[in-house]
Amino acid sequence: AVVSTQSTGKTNKHQMKRTTPSTPQFYKTPTKVKKGPIDTTTPSPPPLETYKTPNEKDSSSTTTYFSFEDELLNDASLFPSDTMVGLQLIKSQFPRMKYPKTPPIVMLSILYSVLEDRTSLDRELEQLKRSGVLRVFKLGTGKNDYSIVFMDDYRMKLDAIKFDRAAIGEKRDSIVLDGFLKKVLSQYHDVNITKDDLVNILYRKDSEETNSNNNSSSSSSSNSTNKEATNSIETILPEDAITILVTNRLITLTPLTSLETAASYTFSIPHSGGFLTCILKGRKEIVGFLKRRKYNEILEDELMKRKLKSSDISIKWHVGDLIGLGVLEKIDTTSGYLLRLIAGADV
User: Fold this and answer.
1) Cα(196)–Cα(330) distance, rounded to whole angstroms?
2) How far, in Å, CA of 234 to CA of 216, rounded?
3) DSSP SS3 for 50
C-alpha cells in the first residue's frame, strides 16, 4: 500500500533521494555579508508639468506656477527663425556630389523666392553676418546677385586649402590664410574691401597678440623667439600676401569705375567658378526658351519635365533663382502654377 505523505506527515527517504539532486562537493554556499540597511527608495523628481517660484519665508503668500512649455514658447531664441530654416533648406539642396570642392552656396535670389518679407529677411541676414554665422558674397554675374556661405563651411574650405599648400611646401600660405580668417573676415563684413584696409587689418597687431609675444620672448630662449618671428606675417611683404590671397581665389580685383580711384578687392568663394557658370548658362537657356513661346509663359509642371542642355543643376533651382531675381513671376491658375517672363527682364 502507498502511504500518502500529506496524510501521515512523514517523508519518504527514497523519494527525497530521487527528487532532490545531490549537491556537488566543489560547490559552497556563499556566505551572506551583513550590511547596514539600504534605502532603496529613490526621491521622486518634481513634476515636469510645473514648477513654482521659491518663496520659503512667507508660506502664506500665493505661489505662482509656471509651465515649462510656456517658458520655451516665450523664449524665441530656442527656435530657428524663418530665415535660418530657409537657409538650411536651400543649403541641403546644393549639388555637393557634382561640386565636391565648392562649399555649399545659398543663392540670395532663391531665398527671396522662398520668403516673402524681404525687409525682415535682410535685417536678419545682417544680424547673422555681424555675429559671424554666415558671409555674403557679391557675384560677378549681375549687379544685385549675391550668394551666402555659412562660416563653418568657409573655414573648412580654408583648412583644406592650407593643407594642400602645406603639402607642397608653401608655408607662407598658411600664415596669410590664418591672418585673413582671424583678422580680416572677423572684422570686415562688407563684400568689398580696399587695398589699404586689407593691408592695415591683415598686418594689425592685437593687444592680446602683443602681450603673448612679450611674455613668450621674456620666458623662452632665443631659438624659440626666432622661430616665432619666422612664422609671423610681418616677414611677408604686403604685395606677396595679396598675391597669395588672389592665387587661392579668396579675393578678386574689382574693376575700377569712373568714381573710384583706389584699388579694391571683392571677397570670393574658392572653387565656385564651375557652379556659377552653370547658374549663368541655365538662366539664359530658360529665358531664351520662354522668349520663343507665344505668350512668354509655361506651366511649371511642363517646365519641370524639360532637361537643360547647358546646366547640370536642377531646373527647380534655376526657377527659384529667376523668381527671386524678378525675371519670372509665378501665377496660380486652375491648371496649376504658371511661370511668366516679366516684360523687360533679362539676365
Assistant:
1) 45
2) 17
3) strand
Query: Which of 176, 301, 314 has the alpha carbon at shortest distance from 238?
Result: 176
Residues 6+ apart with CB under 8 A from 224: 216
Give all strands (DSSP E) within 122-181, no chain letters. 134-138, 146-150
pTM: 0.71
Asked if 149 and 125 touch (Cβ cutoff 8 Å), the reply is no
Tally of CB atoms within 10 A around 177: 20
Task: Please give the pLDDT value at position 252.
Answer: 93
* Structure-block grid coordinates of residue 16: 527525497
Quote the crossing angle between the two packed helices 171-179 and 238-247, to the nearest 10°: 90
Q: Is-contact 145 109, C-beta < 8 A?
A: yes
Each residue of 91-116: pLDDT tens digit? Answer: 999 999 999 999 999 999 999 999 98
From the list 44, 43, 61, the residue with the least C-alpha distance to 53 is 61
Cell numbers placing 116:
516673402
Helix (H) or strand (E) holding 333: strand 328-333
d(CA 203, CA 176): 10
Nearest Cα residue to 229 out of 250, 242, 213, 209: 213
Q: Cα separations (Å) of 167 from 38, 175, 178, 243, 257?
A: 63, 14, 16, 19, 40
User: Which amino acid, residue 142?
Assistant: G
24 vs 178 pLDDT, higher one: 178
Give the type of residue at 325.
Answer: L
- Take residue 250 and report the three cell numbers written for it: 579668396
**End-to-end alpha carbon distance in the chain:** 113
Strand partners, 192: 266
d(Cα 252, Cα 246) in Å, to the nearest integer?
6
Rounded Cα distance between 286 and 146, Å, is: 20
DSSP letters for 275-303: HHHHHHHHHHHHHHHHHTSSSSEEEHHHH
pLDDT tens-digit readout, 143-157: 788 999 999 999 999
Distance CA 297, CA 58 (A): 74
Rounded Cα distance, 157 and 163, in Å: 10
CA distances from 115 to 112, 294, 313 (A): 5, 31, 22
